[in-house]
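Suppose you are handed only these lines of text.
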Amino acid sequence: MKFIKIEDCYKTYKNGVTATAGLNLEIDKGEFVFIIGATGCGKSTLIKMLYREEKPTKGKVIVGGIDVAKLRNSKVYKLRRKLGIVFQDFKLLPKLNVYDNVAYPLTSMGLKNKEIKPRVIKALDLVGLKEKMRSYPNELSAGMQQRVCIARAMVNGPKLLICDEPTGNLDPETSKEIMEVLNQINQELGTTIVMVTHDKDIVNRMKKRVILLDNGVLASDEMKGKYKVNESV
Amino acid sequence: MRAFRILIRSINDGIRSVFKNFSLSMASIICSTITLILVAVAMVISANVDNFTKEIEQDLTIVAFVDNQATSDDVENIKNELSQINNIDQSQTIYKSKVEIKDEMRAESNIFDAVMGQWSDEDNPLKDTFQIKVKDIEKIKETAEEIQNINNISTVKYGEGMVDQMVNAFKWIERIAYGAVIALILVTIFLIINTIKLTIFSRQREIGIMRLVGSSNFVIKTPFIIEGMFLGLLGSIIPILLIVFGYTYFYDFSSGYIFTPLIQLIKPFPFIYYASIIVALIGIIVGMIGSASASKKYLKV
Ligand SMILES: Nc1ncnc2c1ncn2[C@@H]1O[C@H](COP(=O)(O)OP(=O)(O)O)[C@@H](O)[C@H]1O
Ligand SMILES: [Mg+2]
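From them, the structure of the protein bound to adenosine-5'-diphosphate can be written out as follows.
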C-alpha cells in the first residue's frame, strides 16, 4: 500500500474549469517530491485534494490509508491532524505569539499544557526559532514567519508535510535556508514532503523526484529530476 | 478530559471576544438588558397575580338562598343538583338552615340577640343558605348562574364586582406583559445572531486557518456559542439588580400589598433569588439560541 495514491483523478470546479484530468500518481513514505508546472496547470488543486480542501470530482485520492473523497466534512480535521501544511502566505494567527501559533494545533486537540510545551519547544528548535517564542508574527521577517509555519505544521509529528510554494514570497538566500530546514525534516524525521514550487534553482540543486504537470495531467515524473520548462512558460 | 479542556479554552476565548468587540457587543447587551427587565417585570407581576388570585379563590364564597316555601325534599333536591355542578368544590359546600343562621347571628351580637330572640320559626325572615366554593374562579359567574337556575333557589350572591374585575384586569396585564416579552426575546435573539454573525465574518480568515491546522467543528463553534451565552448573562445583571433592590424596596414601600390588604404581595425572600436565577437563565438561554443559530448558519462546515 503506497502512502499516497491518486487514481484517475479528475477535478472540475463549479465554474467549469477542469484543474486535473485523469491524474495517476503514487508517492512512497519518506519521499521528497517537487510538483512543478506552469501557473494554472493544477498544482495547488492537486495538493489541496491531499488535505481535502478540495474533493476530487471523479477518481480516488488516498492519503495514509484515508480515502479523502469519502471523508465527511465534519471529519476532515482528523485527516488534517495527521499532516502538516505550509503555505506561501504563512497563514499564522496574527493575535497569537509564536509559541501559541505553533501550539495551536495541539491546543485545539484539547491536550494538556504540560503535554503541549515540550512538543512546541521541539518544533521551534527544529526551525531554530526558540528565542522568538514570545514575538508576534508581524514582528518577524518573512523567512522567520515561514519557519514558524513549518514548526506549526510539524508540531504534531505528521508523516506528511505538504508545502504550496513555501519560498514563493522569500528572497533566494532565505529560500535556501527554508529548503535546508525542509530537507533536514525529510532526512532526519523521515517525513514525506510534497512541495509545489516555481523555483528552478531549488529544484535543480536538491535533485529530488520531480513531477511535472501540464494542464491537469502528468507530463513527466523523474527521480533526481531537473526543473523543466514546458511549452506554456 | 480533552473536551473539558477545549470547553475551558472556549470559555476563555468567548469571553475575551465580548470585550474585544465591545462596541458591537454593547448593542446585544443593551437589548437583552431591556428584554430581561421586561421579563423580570412580567415575572414579578405574574407570580403576584397567581399568588393573590389563589388566595382570593380560597376566600371567595357563593351564597345561595333557598326559597322560604321550600320543603325539606326540595332542599335535598337542591343538594343533589349542586353535586352535579363541576366547578363546585363539593367538599366545602356548607348548608345552613335559617334557624342555624339565626342562632349564629344572635351569638355574634347582643342587638341581634335581642331582636331575633322574638322571632318564631314562622316569623324568621332569614333564608336557608348554601355556602359554596368554586374550583376555578374565572368561571364563578357561570357557576353562579347555574346555581340560580336550580328550582327553589331565590337569589345567589358572591363577591361580584371589584374582586372579579381586578382579577380580570391583572390577567390582562399579565397577557400583555407576556406578549411584549416574547416579542422582545425575538428581537434580542435577532440582535445576538447579528453580533455573532459579524464576529464570525471578522474572523473568517482565522477560522479558515484553524480548520487547515485541524480544528474540529466543536473547537471552532464553541467559543462563539459561549460568547452569545455570555452576552445574555451580561444583559441579566441590571435586571437582577432591579429585582433584588427594586422589588424589596417596592414591597417595603407598599407595606406588602397593593390597593387593598386583600391583594398581598409575595414576600421578597426567597422570591427575589428564584426570580434572579430564572432571569439569568433566560438571558443565557436566549444568548445561546442566538449564537447557536448564527454559528449554524454562518460557520459552514
Ligand atoms: N476555487 C476555484 N474555483 C474555480 N476555479 C479554480 C479554483 N481554484 C483554481 N481554479 C482554476 O483551476 C485551475 C488550476 O488552478 P491551480 O490548481 O491553482 O493551479 P496552479 O496552482 O498550478 O497555479 C486554474 O485554471 C484556476 O483558475
Ligand atoms: Mg498554486
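What can we learn from it? The longest strand of chain A covers residues 18-27. Residues A 13, 15, 17, 19, 37, 39-45 surround adenosine-5'-diphosphate (ligand 1) (CB under 6 Å).
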